[in-house]
Structure formats: C-alpha cells, structure tokens
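Because discrete structure vocabularies remain unfamiliar, we reproduce here a specimen of the format, pairing a chain with its fold in token form:
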Amino acid sequence: MAHAVQSHGIEMEFGSNGTRTKVLHGIDFTLDMGRLTMLVGPSGCGKTTLLSILSGTLRPTGGDVDVMGRRITAMADAEKVRFRRDRIGFIFQQYNLLPALTAAENAAMPLVAGGMSLGDGAGRARAVLETLGMGAHADKLPRQLSGGQQQRVAIARAIVHAPALIVCDEPTAALDAQSGRQVMDILKQVSADPGRAVLVVSHDNRIYHYADRIIAMEDGRIAGDSADDTLPEELHVH
C-alpha cells in the first residue's frame, strides 16, 4: 500500500535554552493512501503537535517528514506554503469560516488562494457542497448554519482543490452525536479514494469505529498501533 506520509525520528522541543520541554520523542510514522487513520490519546500527549509537523505547519527540532514523496522538512517556508495550499486540506474543531462570505465562497478559499477568481471558485465549490448535502445552503452565511452544517462547509473547503492529504484536528469535538456521525460518514467516504489519505486526530471515542487504522499516543510517543495489534483492547478497530 502506498504511503502518503513517511516520517522518521520526529522530535519536538518548545521553550528557551534554559527551560526547553521535549514533547515528541523520536516518532516514526507512516500514513497510507485510501484509508482513514485516527491518531488518538489523552489531551497533552502530543497529537496536535505531531499533526502540525506531518502537515508542514510546524517544523520539528529533529527528524524528517516526506509527504507524497516530497521532504517537507527540507523545504523553504515559501515552498512549504505552496505545497500545503496545493496538496493538503485542513479541517479543524473550530470551523474557521469567514463570517462575511457565503458557504460557497468559504469553500472556495483554497481555489482563490491558488489564483482562481472568487466567482469561479464559488461555482466549483457549489458542486462539492451539493455532494455533501449542502447545495441548498450554498448562499447562506455561517451564522445562518448549524454547527454540523458549518463543519460540512469546512469539509468542502478542505476537498475542493482535490488534495492528496486531508488532516483533521478534533473535527467532531464541537458537535452533537448526530452531527458528529454525519461528519464522520463524509470523511469515511472521502478517505476511500485510493489517491487520498485522511488523518483524524481525536480523543472522541464515539468515532473510533470509523477508523481503518488507529495509532495511539502517550507522553509524546507512539503507544500502540492497530496495524501491528499493539493497541489496548478498548481501542481495537472492529
């Protein structure tokens, strides 16, 4: 199976020289195409830090990361920004929608960042929103949408430019159970594309069963992986 992400020996420290704190300890990590991989663990274990490094928004203090065959840890900042814009989609716990733009315009933002006009981008985004059951809401502002609907707009924004990697940081944490299931149903469908990988960071055990693979973290280290049957029983993917 093709790897979307390969990393070796990732380390991360924060703080000044006198008070540096190490939060990641030599992590080796792979992410496969065509699968939904879930990174789980308690708050403060390093999940979001690892996600930020794997998606190129944070530079590690040690180790290397390859994404789609490109070593992002060796890229200059400007090159990394372009790579993220073109190849990675982001979904967050907070939807980060622009309040003055419609759903279609918000979903079009990656296309606009790539040079497309807002009108043309919104037209393409409408088609994506339609596939997510949001076609009737394309012209609404974020304040006119429920939390689950706003998260579906955020998903449309993450996939409108057909990225190969989609990273999701606690995408269901702000949602009720039904809205969370709807969002995960969509992400599961999106992850089935053999040319795409989806990585979800979560400590919401209501959604663990959506994962094709679960990787558990603890204290800045990989503590278990369903791929090699080292997960605790309560985290096994059924």
Notes: The chain has a mean pLDDT of 90. The beta strands are 3-14, 21-32, 36-40, 62-67, 70-71, 88-92, 165-169, 197-202, 213-218, 221-225. The radius of gyration is 18 Å. The chain has one domain: 3-235.
